[in-house]
């Protein structure tokens, strides 16, 4: 019991804060309870797609809330408190996953995979650094982490508070739960809707079930894919039987970042890109080249370019990070590896997007890989892209092709002893955020890249471009035009009668550019000077020129490897192609 002194202090101080301000305390308590109920309701009804985030989605009765309330009402006090805390943490985690789904759907056109996709958050942070600067990106990352912790803590406290309230007013809580349950059943039976959305909701339970199925399917896929990867029709094909139709040719495989079907068919983007393709077709035809173009359906969308690269090269559908790890840890024959196996080509990779070591080089069968540190670039970055495409191609010519195409007696001796080149080039200037953009300049002006300092400073800022969807799409189109102009101009200037170019997109751009319902198709083109090269693929029914027509065949990207190896392998009654003098 308090002594007289403490009692006097309480009397003098007026008791606790609640005693001194009862009305304010009741108001705050009611507001806190109402806020707890609103947070729980929002979490239970939150969709995982931005397009579904409408007021009607929240004018519903979640069945999970009814069952949860009923369960908490019948549990003993200690068990009830533990169950409430666990339910709150679980609901907070579900909210975090739904928010990740919204982000992934907006950028990659698919939901977040809780088994494979955690590593992609690093790529998202890198993109933010390129778009808004390092300091702001760090601030966003800290804010995101704080939001996750806040959701877990606040949601737990909210359900614990509501649970305690129901326990103190169990009779009222029981009647309310029964009424809401009856209304939910009636709305289900009658199909009652608000703004086209059913009032009786069970979305949270469905999302949890989908998550569980997704995790189980992902884990099962790992084992199934390992068996699929082990089956390879070309595993034991001798090198002297591979690619006989391309012997003596310099073959260049080039990926253009984010070069998707939207670039050719979107009403806002297509006019400029189509004009660049039409002009390129005309210019290459004048130089003696012909082309055929079709469509491939990429295994990825909006990002994760390495999944598209590996799908194209391996002949396997690589649509998640675990499949990629399994593939690159094995000995699957890739397109580039097939050139290596023949012993008839020197194989090189030009990878300006790489800023550190790339262990996968050995898997792809590349004799030499040039990353951003090896290309001698002294100019500025263009947001994510470490250097302009034209500079990367110029460095490729200087470091590799120029050795065997030099003029004079020294060049003649080099050609006599050098193998033709098979090159794997990943161009990056069309990587988002598409600002600032480089400009095409004279090949003799490129030098060490310092000339790009003024061009970069005069370019647009990503934070300004991304304020408006139309402007983002416009700048995306300009970036594709630049990449195409650079590649076509390179072939005009440095290509020979033995040059064969295969170029394609790795994936469609993000949904902000390509739309919510875009396909995963990307253009693919084969360009050659020697008519015999294109004759080998005449049965593919591809569109003549650099632009694939709307009715050109659409193949899954993983089918290309086998089609290519078959088309350019030995054919009945034919001898291996010889290089043109």
TrEMBL record:
TM annotation in the entry: 28-46, 58-75, 82-100, 137-160
Keywords: Membrane, Transmembrane, Transmembrane helix
Protein name, UniProt field: Sulfatase
Species this protein is from: Streptomyces halobius
């Amino acid at each position: 019991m308090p002594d007289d002194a403490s009692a006097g202090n309480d009397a003098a101080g007026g008791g606790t804060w609640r005693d001194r301000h009862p009305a304010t305390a009741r108001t705050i308590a009611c507001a806190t309870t109402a806020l707890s109920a609103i947070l729980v309701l929002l979490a239970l009804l939150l969709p995982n797609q931005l397009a579904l985030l409408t007021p009607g989605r929240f004018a519903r009765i979640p069945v999970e809330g009814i069952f949860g309330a009923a369960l908490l009402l019948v549990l003993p006090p200690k068990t009830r408190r533990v169950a409430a805390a666990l339910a709150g943490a679980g609901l907070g985690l579900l909210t975090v996953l739904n928010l990740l789904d919204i982000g992934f759907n907006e950028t990659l056109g698919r939901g977040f995979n809780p088994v494979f996709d955690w590593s992609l958050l690093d790529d998202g942070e890198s993109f933010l650094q390129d778009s808004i600067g390092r300091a702001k990106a760090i601030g966003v990352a800290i804010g995101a982490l704080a939001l996750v912790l806040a959701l877990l803590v606040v949601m737990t406290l909210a359900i614990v508070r509501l649970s305690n309230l129901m326990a103190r007013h169990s009779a009222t809580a029981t009647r309310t739960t029964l009424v809401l349950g009856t209304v939910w059943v009636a709305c289900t039976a009658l199909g009652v809707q608000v703004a086209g959305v059913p009032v009786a909701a069970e979305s949270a339970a469905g999302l949890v079930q989908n998550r569980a199925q997704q995790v189980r399917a992902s884990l099962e896929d790992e084992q199934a894919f390992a068996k699929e990867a082990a089956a390879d029709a070309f595993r034991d094909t001798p090198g002297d039987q591979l690619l006989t139709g391309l012997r003596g040719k310099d073959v260049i495989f080039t990926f253009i970042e984010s070069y998707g079907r939207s670039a050719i068919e979107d009403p806002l983007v297509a006019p400029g890109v189509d004009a660049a393709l039409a002009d390129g077709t005309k210019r290459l035809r004048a130089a003696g080249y012909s082309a055929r173009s079709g469509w491939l359906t990429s295994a990825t969308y909006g990002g994760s370019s390495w999944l598209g690269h590996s799908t194209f090269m391996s002949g396997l559908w690589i649509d998640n990070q675990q499949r990629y790890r399994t593939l690159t840890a094995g000995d699957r024959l890739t397109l580039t590896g097939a050139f290596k196996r023949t012993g008839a080509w020197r194989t090189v990779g030009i990878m300006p997007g790489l800023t550190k070591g790339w262990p996968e080089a050995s898997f792809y069968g590349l004799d030499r890989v040039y990353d951003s540190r090896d290309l001698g670039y002294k100019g500025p970055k263009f947001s994510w892209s470490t250097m302009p495409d034209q500079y990367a191609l110029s460095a490729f010519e200087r470091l590799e092709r120029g050795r065997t195409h030099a003029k004079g007696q020294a060049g003649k001796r080099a050609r006599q002893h050098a193998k033709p080149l098979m090159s794997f080039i990943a161009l990056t200037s069309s990587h988002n955020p598409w600002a600032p953009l480089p400009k095409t300049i004279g090949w003799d002006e490129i030098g060490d890249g310092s000339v790009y300092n003024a061009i970069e400073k005069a370019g647009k800022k990503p934070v300004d471009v991304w304020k408006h969807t139309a402007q983002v799409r416009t700048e995306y189109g300009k970036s594709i035009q630049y990449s195409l102009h650079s590649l076509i101009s390179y072939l005009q200037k440095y290509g020979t009668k033995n040059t064969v170019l295969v170029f394609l997109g790795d994936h469609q751009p993000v949904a902000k550019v390509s739309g919510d319902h875009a396909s995963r198709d990307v253009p693919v083109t084969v360009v050659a000077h020697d008519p015999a090269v294109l004759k080998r693929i005449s049965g593919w029914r591809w569109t003549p020129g650099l632009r694939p027509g709307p009715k050109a065949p659409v193949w899954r990207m993983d089918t290309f490897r086998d089609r290519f190896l078959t088309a350019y392998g030995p054919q009945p009654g034919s001898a291996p192609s010889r290089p043109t003098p």
